Amino acid sequence: MNITRGILALSLLVAGLLASARTSDGAPDTAPLPAASPRVGDARAGKATFDAYCSVCHGVGAKGFIGPNIGGVDWTTAGLHAIVRGGVGGYGSMPAFNADAVTDANIADIAAYLAALPGAAPPAASAPTPSATTPSATTPPAPVTAVAASSPSVTVASGDPIRGRQLYTANCAACHGASGQGGVGPNLHGEKARKDTAAAIAWIKHPKLPMPTLYPDPLSEKDVDDVAAFVESL
């Protein structure tokens, strides 16, 4: 009887050891696995990558240029990954970037950077322009005052073309070429014959698409004057 009990106890011990070994060898475990946490990108690293690869089309601060304004968009890493890897057709034709140029970690960082940016501001409501008082039929017209010949003319502050060249290199050369010879943007050589300094300043401040708006950020009033002076010297 003692021998029988000993054999039974030994059998139970062996069965337990086999079950334990089976679980450690990779048998299915019924305990739920913790969900993998999504990678949180580094917005600062994302800005560096965006400036290097994306700003030439999407503009400084992702405000839009040839490509659309994409600042403030809460991209998922997977969604942005599909766009970066596959590219986008149509106007602008965004190219696809492989992992040798933009890694998966870079994409997560860019997504964090774009999400941290302010979105496109809604167009500001224009203030109502006070209408001129229309004289009634019974009101005599006001006398016309002659303009004095000595009225001062409007003057435009002259910029510093040397400093303007440095600002141009940092903000404009990516599209207009290192020496203004043209590229994505038009050739600026001989611009003085097409626009005077006042017109050049006005264009830089209030450009038409696809040129991005760089004033008042990152270019200040003085910066615009200096860039215009450099462009007029080409």
Kindly describe this structure.
This protein has helices at residues 2-24, 43-53, 55-58, 77-86, 104-116, 161-171, 173-176, 191-194, 197-205, 221-232. It is mainly α. Among the domains are: 43-116, Cytochrome Bc1 Complex, Chain D, domain 2, CATH 1.10.760.10; 161-232, Cytochrome c-like domain (Cytochrome Bc1 Complex, Chain D, domain 2, Orthogonal Bundle). The N and C termini lie far apart (110 Å). Mean pLDDT is 73; it is low at 17-38, 120-138 and 144-156.
Could you provide a short overview of the structure?
The chain is mainly alpha-helical.
Q: If helices are DSSP runs of H or I spanning 4 or more residues, what is the number of helices?
A: 10
Percent strand equals under 5%
Please outline the major beta sheet. none
What would CATH call the homologous superfamily of the domain at 43-116? Cytochrome c-like domain
Tell me the structural class: mainly alpha
CATH class identity of the domain at 43-116: Mainly Alpha
Helix coverage percent of residues? 40-55%
How does CATH name the architecture of the domain at 43-116? Answer: Orthogonal Bundle
The beta-strand count equals 0
Which topology of the domain at 43-116 does CATH recognise? Cytochrome Bc1 Complex, Chain D, domain 2
The global form is: elongated
On the 0 to 100 scale, the average pLDDT is 73
Order of helices and strands: HHHHHHHHHH
State the low-pLDDT regions, or none.
Answer: 17-38, 120-138, 144-156
Distance between the termini: 110 Å
Global Rg? 33 Å
